[in-house]
Design a protein that fits this description.
2 domains, 13 helices, TIM Barrel, single chain, 289 residues, alpha/beta
Length: 289
């Protein structure tokens, strides 16, 4: 059963995709990171599948069990006031019936949106677009039957995995994006793209709000700023797994420095000023004093 609060949050989250201001999502992996992001003023919480998997010691790509993911999501939804959208990768199922059963359980946690992708384990061959449209349509039908509008962010991995030239990958992304929109998706997520010309073409040719991944390690030069992406018409910007990767990288750097040098200057720099670190801890743990 979907509560009125869940319905209202879903409507609010959907509206964010059509506001003049771009929706920026930092992508969390547990209650603490979600609370901190919300306390910093972000109006919605989005999970990263890689981040959640890494926090449990798993690699990405649906190695984490659905039951484990449901436990994390339930805690996040209860721990924040903002709408929560969750990365469900390829849907946690080997067929349509299994995927719909998984989505039912995910909706029951109180979330208002999902990401679902058209690749499996980042295979070079994407899921057949007709089959993927059937998945989107079935999820939309499930959402309708529950009396609320689940925000579906359909991700195409054409640029990640497909064979062909950049032009061919762009064409496939546009074709798939429009088909997914027609099937019932609310937003189309295309990654990894960072060239302004490519992003502008996606915004122009796909008849849906566009989600772009912020990844400073992609491509050359300075990536577009949030303001530039907003001016280009991008509706949604995600950090994806970047925050978790940065956290893990910091742990490794600190461990290596202590092991090799016997010092912890990297850790000290990261925690300076200490007052900011204490404040961040309080925000993450819901403390007001």
């Amino acid at each position: 059963m979907v509560s009125n609060i869940q319905k209202e949050k879903a409507e609010k989250f959907l509206k964010f995709h059509h506001d003049d201001e771009i929706l920026v999502l930092l992508n969390s992996w547990d209650i603490g990171s979600s609370r901190l992001i919300e306390a910093c003023g972000y109006k919605a919480i989005a999970t990263t599948s890689m981040g959640m998997a890494a926090s449990l010691g798993y690699p990405d790509c649906q190695i984490m069990q659905l039951s484990e993911m449901l436990e994390i999501i339930t805690g996040i939804v209860k721990g924040v006031q903002a709408p929560v959208t969750v990365d469900i990768e390829a849907g946690y199922g080997n067929n349509l019936d299994e995927i719909i059963d998984s989505v039912k359980k995910i909706i029951a946690t109180g979330i208002v949106g999902i990401n679902i992708e058209d690749s499996i384990n980042m295979s070079p061959v994407l899921i057949d677009e007709v089959e993927f449209c059937d998945r989107i349509a079935a999820i939309r039908s499930l959402s309708d039957s529950l009396g609320f509008h689940l925000v579906i962010n359909a991700r195409t991995d054409s640029f990640y995995t497909s064979f062909g030239s950049p032009k061919e990958k762009l064409s496939e992304s546009i074709r798939r994006g429009n088909k997914y929109r027609e099937a019932g998706a609310d937003c189309i997520f295309v990654q990894p793209v960072w060239e302004k010309e490519t992003i502008a073409m996606l915004v122009k040719e796909i008849n849906a709000p566009i989600n772009i991944l912020s990844n400073p390690t992609i491509g050359e030069g300075v990536p577009p700023s949030v303001r530039e992406l907003q001016d280009m018409g991008v509706a949604r910007l995600s950090l994806g797994s970047s925050l978790m990767k940065a956290t893990l990288a910091l742990i490794k750097k600190v461990a290596n420095e202590i092991s090799a040098e016997g010092t912890s200057s990297i850790l000290l720099d990261a925690m300076t000023p200490i007052s900011e670190t204490i404040l961040a801890y309080k925000m993450a743990t819901g403390q007001t004093k």
